[in-house]
Design brief:
- The protein is mainly alpha-helical and 493 residues long.
- The protein folds into two domains: 226 residues, no CATH class; 226 residues.
- Helix content is 45%, strand content 8%.
- The chain contains 17 helices and 14 strands.
- A three-stranded mixed beta sheet has the order 5-9-8, covered by helices on one side. Strands 11-13-12 form a three-stranded mixed beta sheet. It has a two-stranded antiparallel sheet with strand order 1-14.
- The longest helix is centred in the N-terminal third of the chain and has 24 residues.
- It is elongated, with a radius of gyration of 23 Å.
- The two termini are 34 Å apart.
- The structure holds zinc ion.
Length: 493
């Protein structure tokens, strides 16, 4: 995050949009009338729901006892990684053979011309005009209609870090490029970002099929399993030059990537086909804009905490909720499980925190350091989450249960969204803090982790499905906090 510097653009209008977003939370029943298009049946949607599928933490990865796919792979060493990759592209291709005609006006899906395995650590030759030596990559090459992967470095590394489902994720994305070539859903004039967003979206559609049990060789749970898959997408964005490489800067932020994946998972390939320059611009303009700013890390100290507290006070001031006290040492609280690194105590309306623990979370991620954190935004988002509970308490909303966790993530998203400069004037930033490039991705990484408070209730119980956590955060980020209380309106779940 960054403090607003003298030269930085400031919002000048106090827009009606911002005020409309701010006006609601203390009037929960009134708010439901304001929000349009949000289905809020009795009790609201189930919190433990992943786009209509039940949340489970069942097995994720290859199915045991299933015969390997019968699919030709050029250059294969017949090893374990190639076996995994072959089964993956086979399942993805089977899915598209079945799904493609429905999604694209009855057209048949032509099988991909060639699947190629290579070893980036060996001499090798050229593939689609690129030397394979040193090419730690997986890619689709349109000119030759082939999907290729590096079995020696990239795929084993991903599999070791995230589990075998990571290999399926990356190859489903590459197959997504083959799908868009066949469907003609990306035109000459479209940017790499459009093409990447669409491929991530197609990946989401395929993973819904896997989550529903329809894939022959793989399964994925809607809880932990999808968390891993979405973490892979975030990770690939984090290592430009090591992923799929047609334009390393244009894959979108982790937030963009996970969003596209979720659209495909929830709404299917037709939604992906709608992703054109305009659609992508609507969602990502602001992110591109931030990238013009300089990355700044705000160290976690008393001064910066005060600035964060002030931004929260401004974002939520029209709710009428009394701002909580902020105490920089852990405090006991009657009747509430203590949470770390930040806790909210409703009895005293106090947010208490451990500076040391918060500083650990603020440490940027480092390879080979299991103790490193997520970055400064992720740390401050924990503080924002406990602050959001104080606003809910003032509004008389329950502080325990999954809906409390999702409301919290949604409100943290709303706070984040109001710290963003918006070049097309849909909203004006609040206070003296701004999101820096990468902040939102830290938030997504923390949301997908298993130790964050951003989507946790007052007792620190996190909503089980990362999918639901990220959706709630995005709802607030995009639409402000008035939908937070209506979308997640059920009592303790
Ligand atoms: Zn791609």
């Amino acid at each position: 995050m960054a403090p607003v510097s003298a030269g930085a653009p400031r919002g000048t209008r106090v827009g009606g949009a911002v005020l409309a977003l701010l006006a609601c939370i203390s009037l929960v029943s009134g708010c439901s009338r304001v929000v349009s298009g949000t289905p809020t049946a009795e009790g609201g949607p189930a919190a433990d729901d992943v786009a209509g599928l039940p949340v489970n933490d069942g097995p994720t990865g290859p199915r045991a006892g299933v015969a390997d796919a019968d699919l030709a792979v050029e250059g294969t060493d017949r090893g374990e990684i190639d076996g995994l990759a072959r089964n993956a592209v086979s399942d993805v291709q089977d899915y598209w053979k079945a799904e493609f005609p429905d999604a694209f006006d009855g057209k048949e899906f032509d099988p991909v011309g060639k699947f190629v395995s290579y070893d980036s650590t060996a001499l090798g030759g050229a593939l689609c005009g690129q030397q394979t030596r040193g090419l730690s990559n997986a890619f689709y090459c349109g000119e030759e209609d082939l999907v290729a992967w590096d079995r020696a470095d990239l795929l084993p590394r991903l599999s070791n870090s995230f589990g075998p489902i990571a290999v399926v994720t990356v190859l489903a994305h590459e197959m997504g490029h083959a799908v868009q070539q066949r469907a003609g859903t990306v035109g000459e004039q479209d940017s790499t970002l459009v093409s990447e967003q669409q491929a991530d979206c197609f990946t989401g559609s395929f993973f819904r099929h896997v989550a529903e049990g329809g894939a022959q060789h793989f399964q994925v749970s809607t809880g932990d399993g999808l968390n891993q898959v979405m973490a892979v997408l975030s990770y690939i964005r984090d290592t430009p030059g090591e992923s799929d490489f047609t334009g390393a800067d244009a894959h979108g932020s982790a937030f963009d990537r996970v969003t596209a994946f979720q659209y495909g998972f929830s709404d299917g390939p037709k939604r992906c086909a709608e992703m054109d320059a305009e659609d992508v611009k609507q969602r990502t303009t602001q992110f591109r804009f931030w990238k013009q700013a300089q990355e700044t890390d705000l160290p976690v100290d008393e001064k910066n905490l005060a600035a964060v507290q002030e931004s929260l006070r401004l974002v939520f001031k029209d709710t009428g909720a009394l701002p909580p006290h902020l105490v920089t040492e852990p405090l006991a609280c009657a009747g509430v499980r203590s949470t770390s690194p930040v806790a909210y105590c409703p009895g005293t309306n106090t947010v208490s925190l451990s500076l040391d623990d918060l500083q650990r979370i603020a440490t940027p991620p480092a390879q080979d350091d299991a103790n490193s954190g997520y970055g400064d935004f992720a740390a401050y988002a924990q503080v924002a989450s406990r602050y959001a509970l104080s606003v809910q308490e003032a509004a008389g909303l329950p502080l325990t249960g999954q809906n409390a966790g999702l409301r919290t993530a949604c409100m943290v998203g709303a706070w984040s969204g109001l710290l963003v400069e918006d070049p097309i004037g849909r909203r004006n930033p609040v206070g003296e803090l701004r999101m820096a490039p990468g902040d939102i991705d830290e938030g997504v990484a923390a949301l997908l982790g298993d130790d964050s408070l951003i989507a946790a209730d007052v007792d620190g119980r996190q909503v089980p499905a990362g999918f639901a956590r990220v959706e709630a955060f995005r709802l607030g980020f995009q639409d402000g906090f008035s939908p937070c209380s209506t979308q997640y309106s059920a009592g303790p779940a």
